[in-house]
Amino acid sequence: MHFLFKLFKWLLTLVILGALAFGLYLGNLSYEELFNAPWDRILGIENHRLDLGRIHGLEDRYGWQRVMVPSKDGTELRGTYIETVKGGRKAVVLLHGLYQNRSMCVPYISMYQDMGYNVLLVDLRGHGESGGGHTDWGIHDVEDMNAWVDFLRSKNPSMEIGFHGISLGAAMALIYSGSDEGRHMKFYVADSSYGNLLELGRDKIMTYTGDSRLVLGMDVLSPFMQAAMFFHTGKILSDVDPASQVTHMTSPVLFLHGRADTLIPPSVAEELLADASGSPKNLYIFDGAAHTMEMATNGPAYRSVVQKFVKGLS
Question: CA 178 from chain center: how many Å?
Answer without folding.
Answer: 12
